[in-house]
Design brief:
This protein is of the alpha+beta class. Helices cover 40% and strands 24% of the residues. It has two domains: 41 residues, no CATH class; 146 residues, DNA polymerase, Y-family, little finger domain (Dna Ligase, domain 1, 2-Layer Sandwich), CATH 3.30.1490.
């Protein structure tokens, strides 16, 4: 059932609810008290009421954030840098899916002690390509990084979007390079659609780094 995931299923079972019929039989006050507004919405959708409107042309997102904790705390700048590139790639993939380009980026770092650092910068040209974003992102990362601090996570925030159809061209931008970047980004997306996400890794060091399963891998170099 849409909206009923694994954790919510366990909660429902603790209340003795195992079927859609048992779910909708609960009164509104009980539903809202125990499952909030979303639970009440789900109930009325199951009863045939169109509570959630169908949007055929959804608006573009206002921002995209991609971050994840490291398997272990680290102060290794090369490792943090490569992890940031993984998040940049993931965020740019979502940006291209939304047919948008961003003008502003931010880098997020979180220390072992949960202290959070954030810096943002405006890009020279709006883009949806990871290597165009990486240069500025790495500069922001270097400004926040300290070798004496252990870090638990890093992430990227993309903001200030323009749809590709409303893109404003820059007469000073290298249009040949821009077109090559756009083609490469689309090619990476097609490969990942066929073979799975992160089959192509964009890396900037030759140093082996542990992946999420703890195995050592060398990032693939893409220019």
């Amino acid at each position: 059932m849409w909206g009923i995931g694994g954790r919510l299923t366990l909660r429902l079972q603790r209340f003795g609810i195992r079927t859609a019929s048992e779910f909708v039989s609960k009164d509104d006050q009980w539903m809202k008290r125990n499952f909030g507004k979303n639970g009440l919405t789900t109930k009325y959708e199951l009863l045939g009421h169109s509570v959630i409107p169908i949007v055929n042309d959804p608006p573009p997102p206002k921002s995209i954030c991609d971050t994840q904790s490291f398997p272990e705390f680290t102060s290794d700048f090369d490792y943090i840098k490569n992890e940031l590139q993984v998040h940049i790639h993931s965020a740019c993939r979502r940006l291209r899916q939304a047919k948008c380009k961003c003008n502003t980026i931010g880098v997020i770092v979180k220390t072992k002690d949960f202290n959070c650092g954030f810096l943002e910068a405006k890009l020279e040209n709006q883009t949806d390509f990871e290597l165009n974003i990486s240069k500025t992102a790495f500069e922001l990362l270097e400004m926040m990084y300290s070798p004496n601090i252990l870090y638990r996570s890093v992430g990227i925030l993309l903001e200030e979007f323009k749809t590709c159809s409303n893109e404003q061209l820059n007469m000073f931008e290298d249009q040949v390079k821009k077109e090559k970047s756009e083609r490469l980004g689309k090619a990476i997306d097609r490969i990942e659609e066929r073979f799975g996400r992160n089959k192509i890794k964009v890396g900037f060091t030759n140093k082996d780094v542990p992946n999420k399963q703890g195995f050592m891998t060398s990032p693939t170099m893409i220019y």
